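User: Can you write out an input/output pair for a complex, sequences first and structure second?

Assistant: Here is one pair. Inputs:
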Amino acid sequence: MSEPVAALNGAIFAGGIADVWEVPLQGMITLRGDLANARLTKAVASVLSGKVPQPGRTTITADRGAAWMSPDEILILCAYDEASSTLAALEKALDGFHALVVNVSDARASFRVSGPPAREVMGKLCPVDLSPAAFTSGMFRRTRMAQVPAAFWLCDDDTFQVICFRSHAQYVFDLLSVASQGGSGVGVY
Amino acid sequence: MLILTCPVCSVTAEETEFHGGGEAHLTRFGPGASEEEFENYLFMRENPRGVHFERWRHVYGCGKWFHAARCTTTLEVFGTYPAQTLEPPKTLRAQISKKRPGWFWRGFE
């Protein structure tokens, strides 16, 4: 049996204005379907013991919860080794309902950017207003990070978690490391 | 640079988060159409100086298509509206008329 490893094997960048590190493998499940349908909300409530997130928001705390991806898609986070059992439970709960549930754990890479200037580091790379008033805890944003798609949310006031495609992992890690280099603070937020 | 608001996920972002999809509200002609109709559908596009209607896709965000009305000279965005719309909505047309009296686009004014 092969041993699953994260895309960059837990790469770390420290010593800059913000710390960047790769998050260990995380269970991720894509659920597509009519998010307003009672059958789907019931399935999510019973399997995840949580609600379907509102548009542009996430219910992720620590490494569990769900995030709103588009009007017909949510991303479910769980522990890596629980992904297949969560998937099976969701499939069972949605049996016969028009929905798609897929385990995408190995298709993604995940990073954290931490430190007081974390908003600036993200602001250098994404066309998003990240001022503390505009981007608050509980919000989830899919956007462009330099040249690749990415999504992020706030773990706490000074920490972002970023997810991107696994094939973009090195590129995104390099981007975040360059953007958090020492002395590169801008001081806008 | 355009600042667009996606009517699907209500996110306001600049145009690099979106992708343009060409002119809006085209009527498609396929097999069985006359050659002239097919030519018009395939090649003939508006190239206005002023009010224009376009399709856009929120490609780095929710991934959905929508419509946008904008001015080609000032890059002012008059509004965005859902993709499931066959013609520019009346309220939006009235708003544009206030800002650009006498505008004309493909039979709408």
